[in-house]
Specification:
The protein is of the alpha/beta class and 449 residues long. 26% of the residues lie in helices and 30% in strands.
Length: 449
């Protein structure tokens, strides 16, 4: 996989604990990469209180592009169970193991690296994934003939618009760092919000810029995402995806965001009105806001995000020439029409389903204007991507379709892990290392002594 310049993390056999039950799961290829037609060998060992499990039944589920292709029950015998599955083309294979109770129903797992994973996968005791012909995953996403014209018009609107920033100073927790909440007026009545932070007393044109984009959560964004980078000497912004003002209660955000978003279905099919289209106006406004700050050095601009934040980061990298480095982790919005290639579309298009998308082609036609794959083709700055092979939220095959669409002339890297998934469990090792390197070299002396 050298052609992908991939870093593979977590390849050692790892114990995954779920209460009193634990599981070891491995593949015959530690990095999880295979060629089409290869047989993938998966080994599973299960334990109770650290002792090899013998007697209870367990179940293996194998999925291809998140569609179950095999379910096999087996009796634990204190040793390893071995399963072989063949990949029949470019794509993604997932293995998940459950322990069954006396009634044949899977037992509920009680612990996981992530609260959200516990909620999404309550019975999975061990999981791993594989990718076949990753470098040959080609997206069916089409490029509208007026794609560049569409975005040039929107960017021109943002550049010409009076952002009218409203800033409220907050306590950063450090006398060396300034912190503000902000709201911005973006084109077409869209509002952006988030937090701005930078070293106190920073001289004009002295700081590298950093813009962090929020993932799809029904919350405010944490100011720490800005403060932590300001402490390293950056002019940092942490931006919400939804634009509602910060500092409200969790209940407030759930109450206002749900009817606003409507699961992404609001005005779906209308490229001018789609609810997620407003998010891209926010990104444009946030970029202009950061560039307008007197502290920005005018040379270094890092954009960073994961999941829904990943598509925002990819978009910023594609549309803003001043962006120098983009970290795009487990990005969403990859392949709205993935069903045409035998894969599964992302998010809202996944919920709609392939049958409806076939009968309503205008939905995907709208989606092409906002698809990560079309932005990927336009990324010229350094970019670092990551994918986890147990990610059942943003599928690794969709992410590789995005990655493969980034021009070969662009400096890019891919970090992968066959054992990790979504919700901050897959780490962008190369991207995080690069951001730290950039700030060490550009922000020296930015913080007062």
């Amino acid at each position: 996989m050298k052609k992908l310049t991939a870093i593979v993390t977590g390849i050692a056999l790892t114990m995954t604990a779920f209460g009193e039950y634990t599981g070891k799961i491995s593949l015959d290829r530690a990095d999880g990469f295979y060629k089409s037609g290869d047989s993938c060998v998966c080994k599973v060992a299960l334990y109770k209180d650290g002792v090899p499990l013998a007697g209870p039944r367990a179940r293996l589920t194998v999925k291809w592009e998140n569609q179950p292709i095999r379910r096999e029950e087996f009796v634990t015998n204190g040793g390893e169970a071995v399963f072989t599955q063949t990949g029949k083309g470019p794509g993604w294979m997932y293995f998940g193991v459950e322990i069954l109770g006396d009634d044949g129903e899977p037992l509920r797992a009680s612990s996981s690296p992530s609260r959200l994973l516990r909620e999404r996968k309550p019975t999975i005791v061990a999981e791993i994934g594989a990718l076949f012909d990753a470098e040959n995953i080609v997206s069916p996403v089409r490029e509208p003939v007026d794609f560049d014209e569409f975005w040039a018009k929107r960017r021109a609107e943002a550049v010409a618009h009076d952002l009218s920033p409203q800033l409220t100073e907050l306590d950063s927790g450090s006398p060396k760092v300034k912190l503000y909440s902000f709201t911005l007026s973006c084109p077409r009545g869209v509002t952006a919000s988030g937090y701005l932070s930078f070293p106190a007393g920073a001289a004009p044109r002295s700081l590298p810029g950093y813009l962090f984009f929020q993932s799809l959560t029904y919350t405010d964004i944490g100011s720490r995402y800005a403060v932590e980078q300001a402490e390293k000497g950056a002019l940092a912004i942490a931006a919400t995806w939804h634009g509602f003002p910060g500092g409200k209660s969790p209940d407030h955000y759930r109450e206002v965001i749900k009817p606003y978003l409507q699961d992404g279905l609001r005005d779906l099919g209308d490229r001018e009105k789609w609810v997620f289209g407003e998010m891209f106006f926010r990104v444009l406004g946030e970029l202009e806001f950061l560039k307008s700050r007197p502290e920005w050095d005018g040379k270094t601009l890092v954009v960073y995000g994961g999941s829904l934040g990943g598509i925002q980061s990819a978009f910023a990298a594609a549309i803003e020439p001043k962006v120098t480095t983009a970290v795009v982790s487990v990005p969403g919005f990859c392949e709205c029409n993935a069903y045409e290639a035998g894969r599964t579309p992302y998010g809202v298009f996944r919920r709609i389903g392939a049958e409806k998308l076939r009968t309503r082609p205008e939905l995907a036609e709208m989606g092409f204007y906002f698809d990560s794959v079309n932005f990927a083709k336009r990324i010229r700055c350094e970019v670092h991507v990551c994918a986890g092979f147990t990610d059942e939220t943003t599928y690794p095959s969709n992410i590789f379709a995005f990655y493969n669409a980034i021009p070969k002339s662009t400096k890019k890297s891919m970090t992968t892990d066959p054992r990790t998934g979504h919700f901050n469990t897959t780490k962008n090792v190369r991207g995080d290392s690069r951001v730290s390197e950039i700030f060490r070299s550009t922000a020296i002396g930015a913080l007062p002594k």
